[in-house]
Structures are given as structure tokens and as C-alpha cells.
Amino acid sequence: MKRIFKDPLLHFLLLGAAIFVGYGFVSPRSLDESGKVVITQGQIEHLAAGFAKTWQRPPSPEELSGLVQDHLKEEIYCREAIALGLDKNDTVIRRRLRQKMEFVSDDIAAQKEPTDAELEGYLKSHADTFRTEQRLTFRQVYLNPQKHGDHLADDAAKLLAQLSQAGSQVDASTLGDSFLLEYEFTAVPAGEIAKQFGEQFPAQLLALKPGQWQGPIESGYGVHLLCISERTEGRLPALAEVRDAVRREWDNARRLEGNEKFYQALLKRYTVTIEQPAVEAKKSTEAQQ
């Protein structure tokens, strides 16, 4: 028994309990001085609805009672934690509270339905976001620089003459060197071409005249001889074609704008002082001198 009373862990537990009890006497026990907890019928219905949404059935009387008891425990723990100041300087709680304030701002911004005129104006003012890319249909013959070495230019010229003589119907896969990608590309966006061949490749490809074999032009793989059969220019689509996308972007822009206005309105209520770090303050003083 004496060994138990000498145990440092027991001393620590007793000291903690004493501090907790003492704190209860010198500080409010909860945010509600009356100590009352009221669980309304609306809250019970909300708990039951949450259960039904998760389990696709209403809770039994025993399950509903358990939900209410769990909610009661959560309410009491939360009140006591706030009374003890456990919510102070907690990064997770601070971020969650900020998020909930932004949700309030989001709800305010979401109340307004855009008119067609507003969506049309947003579409035109953000044309680059919604403009369709140029698309190209072409065939290519690849020449591997390592395989041809110093004869690359001559071999390319000879092959180009052969292709030009054969015309646009020649089977490109039977000529040139083996290649990892396809030999024929149909209505491929310029951005996708850039991903496959390199950033400079689409611009070089667009400079070629359709209907004849031309080149060589370089890519990240080597050199290519190409024949463009069709080129579709990019355009700004009509609102009816991209309404859903425009609406999503419009909603997001409204949300961000609303959040910023909400924050600026709250900021005006405060006097803000941002202290400089000691090093920065010293540099500022030296600069002034």
C-alpha cells in the first residue's frame, strides 16, 4: 500500500483532479449559467433524418434514444471544453470556425440566380476559358535522328519527294522509322498535340498548308513529315452550348467575390496591428537613419 502512495503516477492524477475541481470553483462551468440543456423536437427529428439518410431506414426507438444520449454527451462535453478554454489556440478548431463563416458567405452568394444576360456577359468577358481549341486531322511519317545521323536531312528530302509523288492516300505507317505514337490523328485539339509532341509542335503544324506532304518539322522525338487533311479553327461557343460550364464558373466567381466582400466588411470592425519581427524592425530603423 505504501508503494502505491509513493507512485509518481498517482501523485500526477491526484494533482490533475485537484486542479480540475479547483478550476470549477473559480470559473464558470459552462456558457449556460443555468446549467440547462434543452434538446428540442427539431433536433431529434434532425438526428433521425441523419440516421435514415445513412442507413436508408428510420431508427428504432432504442436507436433514436441512443442518438439523443450521444447528442447530449456531445453538448455537455462541448460546453465544458469551452468553459475550460480548451477551444483557445487550437488550429483545427480555428480553421473549422473560419470554414463555417465562409459557408455563411457562400449561402448568401448562392441566393441569386443569374440571368441569361449575366451569363452571356461572363462568357464573353472570359472568352479564353470557354473558347474551343483548334483541331487538326493529319498523318505523319517519323525519322529517327539517331538512326540517320548526318544523313537525316538528305533522307528526309528523299522521303518527302516520295510522299509528294505518291499523294495524300499513301499509307504512312509503311514508311519512315517505327514510332511510339499513332501515324494518323483525327480532329485532335492543339493542346493534346502539344502534350504528345512538345509545346512548339502545334504552331509549326498550323503553319503548314493542308492537302500536301510537308516538312520536316521537329518534335521531342525527332523529325516528322506531315500531311494535314483538315483544320478546324477554334471559336467561342454560344451560351446554349456551354451553359452548365458558364454557370459553374459564374457561381464560383460570385462565391469568391462574396467571400471577399464579407471579409472586408468584418475587417472594418477591427483595429489591426501587425508587429514586425525583430530583424525586420531593426532593418527598417537602420534604413530610416
Protein architecture, described:
The chain has 289 residues and is an alpha+beta fold. The protein has three domains: 87 residues, no CATH class; 72 residues; 100 residues, Chitinase A, domain 3. Helices cover 58% and strands 11% of the residues. It contains 13 helices and four strands. Strands 2-1-4-3 form a four-stranded antiparallel beta sheet. Helix 5 packs across helix 12 and helix 6 packs across helix 12. The longest helix is centred in the last third of the chain and has 29 residues. About 9% of the residues have low confidence.
C-alpha geometry: elongated
What amount of the residues lies in strands? 5-15%
SS class: alpha+beta
User: What is CATH's topology name of the largest domain?
Assistant: Chitinase A, domain 3
The biggest beta sheet is recorded as: 4 strands, antiparallel
CATH class bucket of the largest domain: Alpha Beta
Summarize this structure briefly:
Helices cover 58% and strands 11% of the residues. The chain is of the alpha+beta class and 289 residues long. A hairpin with a 4-residue loop joins β3 (213-218) and β4 (223-232).
Write the layout of secondary structure elements.
Layout: H1 2-5, H2 8-26, H3 41-55, H4 61-83, H5 91-109, H6 116-125, H7 127-130, E1 135-143, H8 145-148, H9 152-166, E2 184-189, H10 190-197, H11 201-206, E3 213-218, E4 223-232, H12 239-267, H13 278-288
Antiparallel strand pairs: 1-2, 1-4, 3-4
Helix pairs in contact: 5-12, 6-12
